[in-house]
Amino acid sequence: MNKKVYIGMTADIMHPGLIHIINEGTKYGDVIIGLLTDKAIAEHKRLPYLTYEQRKEVVENIKGVSEVIPQEDWSYVNNLKKIKPDFIIHGDDWLTGSLRDVRKQVFETMREIGGKVIEIPYTQGINSSSLDKDIKAIGTTPDVRLRSLKRLINAKPIVRIIEAHDGLCGLIIENVEIQKGDTRKVFDGMWSSSLTDSTSKGKPDIEAVDLTTRLQDLNNILECTTKPIIFDGDTGGKIEHFIFTVRTLERHGISAIIIEDKIGLKKNSLFGTDVIQMQDSIDGFCNKIKAGKDAQVTDDFMIIARIESLIAGKPMSDALERAFAYVQAGADGIMIHSKNKSGEDIKEFCLAFRNKYTHIPIIVVPTTYDHIYESELQKWGVNIVIYANHMLRAAYPAMVNVARTILENERAQEVRPFCMPIKEILELIPGTK
After folding, report:
1. Is residue 306 classed as helix, strand or coil in its secondary structure?
2. pLDDT of residue 99
3. Buried-exposed string 22-49: b where 16+ CB fall within 10 A, e elsewhere
4. Per-residue pLDDT tens digits for 64-115
C-alpha cells in the first residue's frame, strides 16, 4: 500500500509553484489534495474567483493527483487527523506571516499521528498575491459579480457591506483591509444608497433621483471595482416599473435589490413616527415581490424585502406576519429596520424569525443601534450588516472643516494635515501613471 501525501491548497490560480509541490509529493506516495472550501477561505483571503466545484474539476485533472477532498477549515488539523497521512508537503512561505500558527498546529498534529512535515523552497518569481492583483486590475464580469453575494452569504459568518456613492468610495471599499491575527477583515461589498445618492447631489431623499441617473453614477463604481453591490430600491415604484428595474440591475451585474414595504411619497425611515409612514398591504407588496422574481433571468439575483413595521410604530407581530408572507411570496432575504437605539426589537425579531426560517438571509442596518458588535448580530441570526451612510457622513464634516480652516487663515497651509498629498491622489487611481 502506497504512503499518503497530503497537500492543502486553494487552487484558484494554478501556477508552476503549485505544480512543483504536487510533483514533489508524488515522490513520496499518493497525493491527496485538501481543497479549501469557500467557507474555509473567506475569513482569511478573498473569495476565490472559481467555485469549489470548478476548482475541484481543475485539480482532479492535474497529473499526479490521486484524490481531492474538501478542507472545510483554514486549519489543517481536522483533515490530518481524519486521513492520517504519512507526509504533508507545504512551501516554506508559511515560516512567516499569518500562516505561522497554522504551521505550528500542523507540526504538532503530524508528531501526534506519526507523520512527517516536508517543507520545500517557495518558487521564486511566482507570487499568488501579485497574480491576484493583476487579475483584479482587469476587473470582473457582470455574471461573476452578480453571483458573488450568494457565495459570500454561504461562506462567511456575516457579510459586511458599506455605502458607496461614487467611484472613489468604491476604490476605498475595494482595497481597505486590516489583519487581525490570521483573520483578514474587509468590506465584502457595497450599498448603493438612495439617501447618499440624492444627498451627494444636494437633493432630498424622496426618490427625486431617477433610476437612469442613479445607474449612470453606479456605472462609475462598477468600472473600478469587483465586489458585489446591493441596490437600494426604495419602494420599488409601480409593479410595472419594478419589473424593468430588476431586469436592468441584473443585466448590470448588481447582486440584489432591497425594496421597502411603504407607499406614497417617500419619507426617510429614520424620521420614524415623526412623519406619516404609510405601509403597503401585505398582498400588494407580495405581488410586487412575485412580479420581480418572475422578471429576473438568473437564480443568483436577490430581491430582499425591507419591513417598515417597527419604524411605523406597529407591533412585532405585524413585522413577523409580513416577513413570513414575503418569504412565501419569493423574497430571497428579509431586512428588518428600526430607529430604536437599543437594538432589542431587532434582536427579538431575528430570534423569532429564525425559529421559523433557518436559512433565509436576515439583513440589518445598525445606524441607530451602532453600539452592537457584528459578533452579537451574528448570534441573533443576522447574515448581512449594512453600514448605510457612513462614507458620506464622514466626508461632509471633513470637507467643511477644510473649507472653514482656509477661510479663517486666508491660506491653505493649515489644512495640510487634513488632506492627502497630491502624489498619493495621483497614485490612488489605477491607470493615472
Report:
1. strand
2. 83
3. bebbeebbbbbbbbbbbbbbbbbbbbbb
4. 999 999 999 999 999 999 999 999 999 888 887 778 889 999 999 999 999 9
The residue ranges of DSSP E strands in 17-133, in sequence order, are 30-36, 65-71, 87-91, 116-120
> Which residue is associated with the grid cell 431575528?
350
CA 97 to CA 144: how far, in whole Å?
Answer: 30
CA angle 152, 155, 157 (to 5 degrees): 95
The answer to whether the beta carbons of residues 307 and 261 sit under 8 Å apart is yes
Predicted confidence at residue 306, as pLDDT, reads 98
**CB of 32 closer than 8 Å to CB of 64:** no
Reported confidence tier of residue 204, pLDDT bands at 50, 70, 90: confident
Instruction: Measure Cα distances from 311 to 179, 283, 301, 307, 319 in Å.
Output: 37, 20, 27, 9, 10
Cα separation, 176 vs 152, in Å, equals 18
Rounded Cα–Cα distance for residues 308 and 263 (Å)? 11
DSSP conformational letter for 262: B
Cβ burial, residue 228 (10 Å; 0-12/13-18/19+): buried
Rounded Cα distance, 233 and 256, in Å: 10
Cβ burial 88-100 (10 Å sphere, 16+ → b, else e): bbbbebbeeebbe
pTM score: 0.89
Cα gap 147→255, rounded to integer Å: 7
Q: Are strands 177-180 and 183-186 parallel, antiparallel or unpaired?
A: antiparallel
Amino acid sitting at position 247: R
Cell numbers for 328: 412565501
Query: What tens digit of pLDDT does each residue of 210-244 get?
Result: 888 898 889 999 999 999 999 999 999 999 999 99
Task: Order across the sheet with 116-120: list the strands.
Answer: 65-71, 30-36, 4-9, 87-91, 116-120
Backbone angles phi, psi at 350, to 5 degrees: -60, -45
Which tens digits make up the pLDDT trace of 39-61? Answer: 999 999 888 988 999 999 999 99
Catalytic residues: 205
How far apart CA 167 and CA 313 sit, in angstroms, is 37
Query: CB count, 10 Å around CB of 16?
Result: 11
Q: How confident is the model at residue 125 (pLDDT cuts 50, 70, 90)?
A: low
